[in-house]
Amino acid sequence: MEYQLIDGKATATAIKQQIAEEVKAITKAGGKQPHLVAILVGHDGGSETYVKNKVIACEQCGFKSTLIRYEADVTEEELLACVDKLNKDDDVDGFIVQLPLPKHIDEQKIIMAIDYRKDVDGFHPVNVGRMAIGLPCFISATPLGILTLLQHYHIPTSGKKCVILGRSNIVGKPMAQLMMQKQYGDATVTVCHSHSATLKKECQEADIIIAAIGRPDFLTADMVKPGAVVIDVGTTRVPDATRKSGYRLNGDVKFDEVAPLCSFITPVPGGVGPMTICSLMKNTLAAGKKEYYK
Ligand code: GUN
Question: Which terminus of the chain has a lower count of CB atoms within 10 Å, N or C?
Fold first, then answer.
């Protein structure tokens, strides 16, 4: 079967261009340039890359961006003080604390300290709760990016069987909420995880599979129904001597054998990844416009 590749990179580029045009119009009319701040703790390779790409995306969208760096031995008090300062800074429309944080810092405590009106990651319980009951809010970037891709490619979701692999707070849980809700996916949703006894069978019956378990090549051809839509959220760094960097990004889907079965599939890289950053830009624009909260 001929499958269609979902081009997240091109979709993200087009959306960032639209955002840039809107920002131009806002500033031309005397409005404020949106300002995103990112806090990066330590020197985790993945986090460094993500934050660097977020800063580049801000430039592409015409946003102001600020990067605040701390060493891995920063105290919880220091981080909380930084969050408090950003909460109170009227020039800052939105900010994110790049995860994961070092083990001695309570991630949830930091997230809870963020003013939910500036929580463009959509991780604060106020945003998570509002999303769960379908109220306007910041929706976390990866699930929002996936929804945008499905819409952009006119992939029908209403009434479809959607299996989500993984139950993380960042992807699996919010994705399930969104795919279930009438105003977003309107699908029949099943969430599978490392202890699901019927995982393979659930996947075989799915019209749409969203893989977010962080296990390279986990989803294989024998688990996929012909004509299914497969969205790969995995970005595990695996050693690869043929690359200059010494590693490559590997998705949760065994692409070569799964793709021929699919109607649509996302590649890794170039699928969900660029859309995640693009969604953060959407949220930052909404924060600048005070679209959800005064
Ligand atoms: N770590 C992995 N994904 C994300 C994300 O979307 N936001 C933040 N802040 N940290 C992350």
Answer: C
- Which pLDDT value is given to residue 12? 98
Closest-CA residue, ligand 1 atom 4, reads 99
Residue 181 CB burial class (10 angstroms; 0-12, 13-18, ≥19): middle
CATH class of 28-120: alpha beta
pLDDT value of residue 251: 98
Which is the closest atom of ligand 1 to the Cα of 38?
A: 9
Beta strands in the chain (DSSP E): 4-5, 35-41, 64-70, 94-97, 161-165, 188-192, 208-211, 229-232, 236-239, 247-250, 264-265
179: left (phi over 0), alpha (psi -120 to 50) or beta: alpha
Q: Taking all residues of the chain, what is their mean pLDDT, rounded to a whole number?
A: 98
Q: Are 249 and 132 in contact (CB under 8 A)?
A: no
The yes-or-no answer to whether 28-120 and 139-271 have a common fold is yes
**What is the reported pLDDT for 294?**
86
Give the SS3 label for residue 83. Answer: helix
The pLDDT tens digits of the residues spanning 184-228 come to 999 999 999 999 999 999 999 999 999 999 999 999 999 999 999
Residue 231: how many other CB atoms lie within 10 Å: 27
**CA-proximal residue: ligand 1, atom 2 (nearest):** 99
Active site annotation includes 98: yes
Overall CATH class of domain 139-271? alpha beta
